[in-house]
Write a sequence for this structure.
């Protein structure tokens, strides 16, 4: 099944070949047909979307200048603040909460003329790799509804994979865009930390979170990135650079480029995934790239470092959910009882687990052994990458160790679920860019994603390689 | 610093739960202790690393000196904000009392 | 309230063999237009919850951005306290309380902006300033129900976030303070400095300066004892009283065989004592870690130096300069009062215009208590009056009257006013004659006076004043009598 791309739709709408309203209705029809089965959305904002589409059509009629994404239906992960529109993070504790402000990326999308079709489902507070941790029920993989779409941005991936939206935004803290992209056969990008503003993104782990796009094609991803990236004065960690220029590099090919192969990669990948990775290397070599062996000896410690750093930051970021100013409150005779009752009933099991782990890792007497140490391991990983990038331009790894897995497969042991992110986590720790590109199918004819990793601000290089992989597929 | 025994007991877990303002039933406490212990045991893999001369990396980027100018920006609408509040009274957020202090 | 060494102290000494050790933590609200990390107004006393934004309320997705002006004022403050200004970081201090919207306070921990400064007290006493760092203020909880309006037993609280996010500098002194007087002097001098540099209006009564006191006791030479922190000290006077009470409480405790528990106590000004403050069962573990949403603050040398050069002359230096100019003690009441009011420049003007320094100091102190740094009376007018009195043309008493008139009218020529009022001091020879006449008329009084009975002089002076109809200068009369006696 092939759905229209962002590039196609934007062009057709701009040229008057089709109206934004007609495009929207097509997408909403698909929502009607399959959403009850897939549950990609927490909220479909049909009325708002229709009004936005009408605005675009009026502008086209009047010959007014249009934004680059004018009329394109886009879905947003439900951890991005949308003013006046419920934003829940798929948690009971924020059920019904309507932010009084828009996230910067939302403002940018609106300015680009995008039509926002709804807020998508996620693992609660973005903690998870399958979207099974949502308080409002899981999302199903549109390619095989007995399987997970990945997580935590499962809803955003499913929405694009099912043709509910031409593109969507997710957030990636340890792989939450790239892994669902791989499992759903999509392109998914985690930008360099600081390239896309975090203002209005409900924080999970502040030094790791980034917003990025899900699309069908690399070109589409470049289009969306150009609209959402760029310096934001509302985010102190936002880089001063303007949005990267990516469309221009897509046809440059990989002649003379050096592609890094990690010889000491963590084990545990399924054979079908490894076969696709080998095929990717072969394809790039055929097209003029050199394959270079690199070592990343600290990569194996990435999971540990991540599962100490991320929960530590999360335990602090989620402390504000205390029933005082917004969200759910469970009444109690005194304040501490109210806090505890609210948080215990409002948060799901995985969130509680990570809050506990994070609180412990930061607490007096344990800081040095856990959080403190994890920050040093993070440095080792970043140093490994720095060394590797002296001899190569990008590194290729699997995105996910396996194709989409059935529901319930990994829910018994939290650690089993955490292992899904073994290849994606290091990039977040280092703050670099990485993206997943679909590259054929594996077991059960399910899609396999290959991950392209680039150094910080290496988006152009990364997209060059991704575009070539797409052509070679 | 190496923590001698990575396994944590339910006393510590209960204390952490209090710090995090989470109520755990006895069952949940037991399960949480088990799961956290398991994770921490797994995380001991970093104990074998020599990290003495490694600088911690709390943030990925070496940014510095990001400021805003001291210029007033319009405030949020109080009604819109209080409409979202679980309990509001007299233009303010209402909360249950804190535990009192003793003489 | 000034820090003059001549100011009376009502702090009785501690029991024999004991010494108090005191450190002060002072929080000051910086005088910026907006909050530390967001653009809501920084204003006192407005309608509740009208200065709010996503950052102030700790809404999901909000992010802090550092106010450059707040940093500038904090650096100003640090330099004024002789600190080293350094590259610094922000940390999160995590705890739960309804007036803390994010459930963490962004503060500075192991790498603060200003370190290793000091503040001088009268008598060349140097109090170390360990650090002065930036942090955000909390909102305000008001408690309802319960008989006393305090936390205990209340029914509910209402929270206003107007104050949440206001920029604070926390100034931590070293435990160098040894008396309650010194503590009060420290607070007063700090306030003077803050106002002089424009960092804060530092009003304890409005909460823009808040003082927490740390007190311990020891026998001199021994290591520091366990300290208690005292909160709710809301005035300079309370600082002194709380310290004196707490030091005695601890001494009493130790002398009766007890030990001091490290704790936070609450000062009850009405009852004049401290109470244990136990708000939570467990001590809080703040789990400090580097604030990931902010970046390194590394003020460049040029910026710091430009702030340094823009600093005004500080109160201590102004007092010293005034003292040198007019020949008073730099730690005298007059020096403190005049500099506090900002009238030292005015006094210098009076002197430059030819005025007599000593009298200038007295007149300005007396006449301009209600005025600010620039009294409305031309300095030359005051100057002229001081000369008139110095030259004996008017008596001290007459000068006072003329001064009042000058102040009332916003100026005036002293000589003219004196003439209009019929003031004229008699010249010395005339007064001498009157003195001789008084001596002749009261031989008994004169004999007693010559014998050493100072009181006997009164009758003689009185007679001269009567004869001269008040135009004789009392000081001159006294001087003549003394001279006659010693012959």
């Amino acid at each position: 099944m092939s759905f229209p791309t962002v590039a196609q739709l934007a062009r057709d709408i701009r040229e008057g070949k089709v109206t934004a309203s007609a495009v929207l209705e097509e997408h909403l029809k698909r929502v009607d047909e399959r959403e009850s089965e897939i549950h990609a959305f927490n909220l479909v904002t049909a009325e708002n979307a229709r009004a936005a589409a009408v605005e675009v059509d009026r502008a086209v009629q009047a010959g007014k200048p249009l934004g680059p994404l004018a009329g394109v239906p886009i879905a947003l992960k439900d951890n991005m603040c949308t003013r006046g529109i419920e934003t829940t993070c798929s948690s009971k504790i924020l059920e019904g909460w309507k932010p009084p402000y828009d996230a910067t990326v939302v403002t940018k999308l609106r300015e680009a003329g995008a039509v926002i079709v709804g807020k998508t489902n996620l693992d609660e507070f973005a903690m998870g790799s399958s979207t099974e941790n949502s308080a409002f029920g899981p999302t199903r993989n549109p390619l095989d509804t007995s399987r997970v779409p990945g997580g935590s941005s499962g809803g955003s991936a499913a929405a694009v994979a099912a043709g509910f939206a031409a593109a969507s935004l997710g957030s990636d803290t340890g792989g939450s865009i790239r892994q669902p992209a791989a499992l759903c056969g999509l392109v998914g990008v985690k930008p360099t930390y600081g390239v896309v503003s975090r203002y209005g993104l409900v924080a999970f782990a502040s030094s790791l979170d980034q917003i990025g796009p899900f699309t069908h094609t690399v070109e589409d991803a470049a289009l969306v990135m150009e609209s959402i990236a760029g310096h934001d004065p509302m985010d102190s960690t936002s880089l001063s650079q303007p949005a990267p220029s990516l469309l221009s590099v897509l046809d440059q090919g990989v002649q003379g480029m050096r592609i890094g192969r990690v010889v000491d990669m963590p084990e545990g990948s399924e054979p079908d995934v490894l076969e696709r990775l080998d095929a990717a290397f072969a394809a790039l070599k055929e097209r003029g790239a050199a394959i270079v062996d690199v070592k990343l000896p600290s990569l194996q410690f990435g999971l540990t470092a991540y599962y100490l750093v991320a929960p530590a930051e999360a335990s602090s970021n989620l402390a504000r959910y205390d029933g005082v100013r917004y969200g759910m409150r469970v009444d109690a005779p005194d304040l501490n009882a109210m806090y505890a009752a609210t948080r215990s009933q409002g948060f799901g099991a995985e969130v509680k687990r990570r809050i506990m782990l994070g609180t412990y890792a930061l607490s007096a007497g344990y800081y040095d052994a856990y959080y403190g140490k994890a920050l040093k391991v993070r440095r080792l990983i970043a140093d490994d990458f720095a060394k590797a990038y002296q001899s190569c331009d990008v590194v290729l790894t699997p995105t996910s160790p396996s194709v989409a897995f059935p529901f319930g497969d990994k829910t018994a042991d939290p650690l089993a679920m955490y292992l899904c992110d073994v290849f994606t986590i290091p990039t977040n720790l280092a703050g670099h860019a990485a993206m997943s590109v679909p590259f054929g199918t594996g077991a059960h004819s399910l899609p396999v994603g290959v991950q392209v990793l680039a150094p910080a601000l290496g988006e152009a290089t990364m997209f060059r390689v991704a575009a070539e992989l797409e052509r070679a597929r | 610093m190496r923590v001698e025994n990575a396994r944590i007991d339910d006393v510590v877990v209960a204390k952490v739960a209090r710090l995090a303002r989470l109520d755990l039933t006895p069952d949940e406490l037991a399960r949480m202790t088990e799961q956290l212990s398991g994770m921490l045991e797994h995380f001991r893999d970093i104990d074998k690393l020599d990290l003495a001369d490694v600088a911690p990396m709390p943030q990925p980027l070496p940014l510095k000196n990001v400021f805003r100018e001291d210029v007033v920006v319009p405030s949020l609408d109080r009604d819109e904000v209080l409409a979202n509040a679980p309990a509001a009274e007299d233009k303010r957020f209402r909360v249950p009392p804190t535990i009192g202090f003793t003489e | 309230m000034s820090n003059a060494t001549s100011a009376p102290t009502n702090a009785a000494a501690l029991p024999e063999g004991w010494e108090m050790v005191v450190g002060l933590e002072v929080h000051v609200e910086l005088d910026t237009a907006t909050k530390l990390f967001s653009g809501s107004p920084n204003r006192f006393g407005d309608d509740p919850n009208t200065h709010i934004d996503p950052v102030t309320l700790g809404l999901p997705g909000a992010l802090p951005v550092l106010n450059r002006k707040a940093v500038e004022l904090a650096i100003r403050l640090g330099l004024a306290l002789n600190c080293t200004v350094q590259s610094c970081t922000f940390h999160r201090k995590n705890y739960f309380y309804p007036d803390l919207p994010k459930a963490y306070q962004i503060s500075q921990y192991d790498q603060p902006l200003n370190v290793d400064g000091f503040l001088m007290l009268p008598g060349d006493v140097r109090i170390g300033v360990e650090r002065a760092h930036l942090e955000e203020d909390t909102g305000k909880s008001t408690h309802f129900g319960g008989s006393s309006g305090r936390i205990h037993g209340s029914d509910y609280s209402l929270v206003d976030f107007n104050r949440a996010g206001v920029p604070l500098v926390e100034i931590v002194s070293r435990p160098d303070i040894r008396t309650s007087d010194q503590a009060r002097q420290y607070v007063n001098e700090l306030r003077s400095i803050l106002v002089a540099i424009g960092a804060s209006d530092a009003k304890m009564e409005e909460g823009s300066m808040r003082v927490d006191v740390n007190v311990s006791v020891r026998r001199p030479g021994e290591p520091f004892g366990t300290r208690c922190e005292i909160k709710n000290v809301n005035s300079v006077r309370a600082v002194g009283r709380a310290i004196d009470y707490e030091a005695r409480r601890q001494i009493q405790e130790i002398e009766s065989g007890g030990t001091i528990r490290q704790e936070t106590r609450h000062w009850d000004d009405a009852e004049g004592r401290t109470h244990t403050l136990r708000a939570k069962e467990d001590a809080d573990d703040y789990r400090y870690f580097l604030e990931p949403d902010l970046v390194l603050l590394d003020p460049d040398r040029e910026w710091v130096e430009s702030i340094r050069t823009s600093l005004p002359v500080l109160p201590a230096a102004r007092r010293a300069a005034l003292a040198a100019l007019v020949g008073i003690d730099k730690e005298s009441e007059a020096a403190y009062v005049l500099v506090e009011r900002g009238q030292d420049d005015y006094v210098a003007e009076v002197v430059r215009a030819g005025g007599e320094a000593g009298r200038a100091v007295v007149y300005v102190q007396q006449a301009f208590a209600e005025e600010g740094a620039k009294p409305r009376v031309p300095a030359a007018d005051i100057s002229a009056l001081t000369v008139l009195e110095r030259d004996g043309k008017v008596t001290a008493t007459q000068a006072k009257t003329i001064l009042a008139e000058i102040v009332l009218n916003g100026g005036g020529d002293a000589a003219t006013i004196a003439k209009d009022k019929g003031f004229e001091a008699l010249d010395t020879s005339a007064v001498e004659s009157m003195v001789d006449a008084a001596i002749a008329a009261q031989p008994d009084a004169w004999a007693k006076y010559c014998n050493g009975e100072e009181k006997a002089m009164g009758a003689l002076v009185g007679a001269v004043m009567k004869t001269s109809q008040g135009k004789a200068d009392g000081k001159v009369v006294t001087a003549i009598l003394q001279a006659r006696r010693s012959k």
